[in-house]
Write a structure and sequence with these properties.
The chain has no helices and eleven strands. The protein starts with a strand and ends with a strand. Helices cover 0% and strands 54% of the residues. The strands form two sheets. Strands 2, 4, 5, 6, 9, 10 and 11 form a seven-stranded mixed sheet that branches. Strands 1-3-8-7 form a four-stranded antiparallel sheet, with no helix packed on it. By secondary structure, the protein is an all-beta fold.
């Protein structure tokens, strides 16, 4: 299993970013995938989750209405579209693949929201 995130960077408050997670080494559409994040000094938290690569989605309350998770089965890629970014969204964002009982994670991509 390999997950490679990209698309992070520095963005001003109110700006937008699209994160990408290229997946390989497993059957992409059979299990849930997620985006989680970890800010300095804080625990990792779920941002968004998508079931069966295109199924039901759910979001953390802190990002609802500003973030959307989507997948492209043909490209084996999961996206996180983020709008109206806030300084408190600053964190390392991780792509996760969940095949119980195991979870797989990418290396993370840094998102910094600052003026």
């Amino acid at each position: 299993v390999q997950l490679v995130e990209s698309g992070g960077g520095l963005v001003q408050p109110g700006g937008s970013l699209r994160l990408s997670c290229a997946a390989s080494g497993f059957s992409f559409s059979t299990h849930a995938m997620s985006w989680d994040r970890q800010a300095p000094g804080k625990e990792r938290e779920l941002v968004a989750r998508i079931a069966n690569a295109g199924g039901n989605t759910n979001y953390a309350d802190s990002v609802k209405g500003r973030v959307a998770i989507s997948s492209d089965n043909a490209k084996n890629t999961v996206y996180l579209h983020m709008n109206s970014l806030k300084p408190e969204d600053t964190a390392v964002y991780y792509c996760g693949y969940h095949q119980p009982p195991r979870d797989y994670w990418g290396q993370g991509t840094q998102v910094t929201v600052s003026s």
